[in-house]
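Field: COMPLEX_INPUT
Field: COMPONENT_COUNT = two
Field: RESIDUE_TOTAL = 246
Field: MODE = joint
Values follow.
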Amino acid sequence: MSVPLISAAPKPFRGCLLKAANGTSVPSGTMTALNFTDEVYDTDSFHDTSTNNARITIPAGVKKVRLTGSASITSGQFLGFLKNGSLAWAYEGSTEINITNTSGEGTVSSHVLEVTEGDYFELGVSHSSGTTKTPNINKTYFSCEVVA
Amino acid sequence: MAKITVNPEYNLPLIAENAGQGDIEKRLYRDGQLHVEGVTQKALDDALAAYNHAQDAPQAEPSELETLKAALKAKGVLADADIVAAKTSLQAAKAVKA
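Field: COMPLEX_OUTPUT
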């Protein structure tokens, strides 16, 4: 007896990929939420390029996501995620990284995070160089991938 | 939570500390505003009013190269004359390439 082969069609990808705003200032010694004014893609209005453009906001029907952030600012920068307006790193399922290479380039990603509609995340960065820095917009991105 | 609109060039850690908050995880710069937890709005406003950028500006950290040179000079391994000689040598090498 043959077994019927059942294959479900893959669900369409949902998520967003954002590019940093030109001219964002990152002061020394204080965590800063980076702004993103360009969208490479945004399948479900996770992001608004003008209002609260630092945020990725979780839409209805999304239960789990994975976040990735990359930045090129300065050597010795810390990079991590902020959740729902918190001033501290969102340690739940992710942590910050200390980027020490001389170019100051690095990427941080989260584990799969449980979320509810309206939750929002920001990409935070801090450094202590003593001078205000501006991210290299061609190397500073923030993304969200819906897992479930 | 208190917040002020402030120039990012200012010494934000000092302003927050003078307002009564020294914890780096209790302050955030977002959309041109410094947000500080655990202090009153008046304390933060007063700290900004008392801030003098001419004398309180943050100090730039020396580069890794400058730090290394200072350490080598302090140990007597490297002298100013060595640095001048190295620069002269590099400039000569560049001139040959050009």
